[in-house]
Design goal:
The protein is mostly helical and about 200 residues long. It has a domain of about 110 residues. About 60% of the residues lie in helices and about 0% in strands. It contains seven helices and no strands. Helix 3 packs across helix 5 and helix 4 packs parallel to helix 6. The longest helix has about 35 residues. InterPro entries: KIAA1958 (IPR042838). Keywords: Coiled coil.
């Protein structure tokens, strides 16, 4: 059996329906606006928007290292405008002499990563160049490989992969200082005074 409808409930129902219809129209307007914005965005802008921010930051940082080095060599052209054979020689010299800001050597993998960043930048500039695969860049790849080998021989990039186990003497010292054992647990607070 259907309940009788009061004029008040019918009016409330109409108000709800009108609000829902208005919400749907507003939503359609927002969708159309978004679609218009997407149509106006170029494909390159879309790619830039979706690119990982950390990768972009690393690429820009590494590209700036090369640009600074080129400027120090009185090479004022943009490196993506330099002919491949010249660029190969410049990159070879860059990889051979590249240093960190503090004058220290880069880690071997960092140099390889810089090469990848420069290659990524060239790809983004729509250059038909691949530093990692093209035969025109074999010399710079060989110099990079040799530099990485030299850095490893000098102790760079040889980080231990796991913690070394404690010796018996080191374990005994920890027991003597009561840092190991079944005794009372002592919590060290950085604000506690050191006692000798």
């Amino acid at each position: 059996m259907a309940l009788p409808r009061s004029p008040h409930s019918i009016q409330m129902g109409e108000e709800v329906m009108n609000r829902l219809a208005q919400d749907v129209l507003e939503l359609e307007d927002r969708i159309e606006e978004r679609d218009r914005a997407a149509e106006q965005m170029t494909t390159d802008e879309f790619i830039d928007q979706m690119r990982n921010k950390n990768t972009s930051r690393k690429t820009n940082s590494d590209v700036n290292k090369l640009k600074t080095w080129l400027s120090d060599q009185n090479e004022l052209r943009e490196f993506h405008e330099i002919p491949p054979q010249e660029l190969d020689l410049l990159l070879a010299r860059f990889f051979m002499t590249a240093k960190k800001c503090d004058g220290g050597d880069y880690e071997p993998d960092t140099l390889k990563s810089i090469q990848g960043s420069i290659n990524r930048h060239l790809t983004e500039k729509h250059c038909n160049i691949n530093l990692i695969k093209d035969k025109e860049f074999k010399h710079s790849r060989d110099v990079l490989m040799s530099k990485r080998k030299l850095l490893r021989q000098n102790g760079k990039g040889n980080k231990p992969k796991k913690a070394e186990p404690l010796t018996k003497e080191e374990i005994d010292i920890l027991y003597q200082k009561k840092l190991l054992g079944a005794g009372k647990i002592r919590v060290h607070n950085k604000n506690d005074k050191k006692s000798n």
